[in-house]
Amino acid sequence: MTVAPTPNKGGTCTLASITATANAGIITYASGASIPAGGCTIIADVTSSTPGTATNTIAAGALVTSLGNNPGPITANLVVNAAVPTVAKVFAPTPITSGGISTLTITLGNTNAVAATLSSIFTDTLPAGVTVAPTPNKGGTCTLASITATANAGIITYASGASIPGRRLYDHRRCHQQHPRYRHQHDRGRSTGHQPRQQPGSDNCQPGGQRRGPTVAKVFAPTPITSGGISTLT
User: Domains of the chain by range and CATH?
Assistant: First the structure.
């Protein structure tokens, strides 16, 4: 989980004392900044490309003030749903002369931070009259051994159990399978495969004049989000 590319920091705490840098893994409130009576909020947008439940914890004692420290840890969960894979394809060149050769590129997209594993075989059935070329020239960036493009066949496949790589930090990843060429019958394809939110309170005193330590609470909204989506942390 990181601060979103556009952090949109805000809240009712002193804005100049909040640091929420795009793509960073931390949000801070400066030493010397104040928490007014009744508390204040720090808000920033965050994002994650890793499917699952991301638990964000502020440890006990992380909020250190002149009135004491927060007594216990506080957590908030952001549920990140996997982004579904995408498929695109293109022939080049087009048009061709009857009996000529064109390259088919199939792109399997995966914007998640983790690889997607095929749970069944992926099959591209070529149009009537189009076949894999006599010399398929299969290739691409997907796992070559998992691509089947047989000369003169009418289908191109990517094996069950093969993977579509996840994206690296901030950069969409896809797997391209360069399948054989097709002739009229074509064929080549690729597969690509804030925190401190002061708990509202009316005073900092306990009976007998003792000061009450500060508290922290946090929440993500919305949750869940789709992988790579944006949620606001308060």
Answer: 2-82+194-233 (no CATH), 86-183 (2.60.40)
Instruction: Please name the residues in contact with 210: beta carbons below 8 A apart, sequence gap of 6 or more.
Output: none
- Top pLDDT among 217 and 88 is at 88
pLDDT tens across 146-169, in order?
Answer: 999 999 999 999 999 999 998 743
In Å, what is the CA distance from 192 to each residue of 81, 119, 163, 172?
21, 15, 9, 12
Sign of CA dihedral 202, 31, 9, 217: negative
CA angle 10, 13, 18 (to 5 degrees): 60
Half-sphere exposure of 192 toward its Cβ, with a 13 Å CA cutoff?
Answer: 21
- pTM of the shown model: 0.69
**Listed residue (86, 78, 115) closest to 229, CA to CA:** 78
DSSP 36-101: -TT---EEEEEE--S-EEEEEEE-TT-SEETTEE--S-EEEEEEEEPPPPEEEEEEES-S--TT-E
Residue 103, judged by CB atoms within 10 A of its CB (0-12, 13-18, 19+), counts as: buried
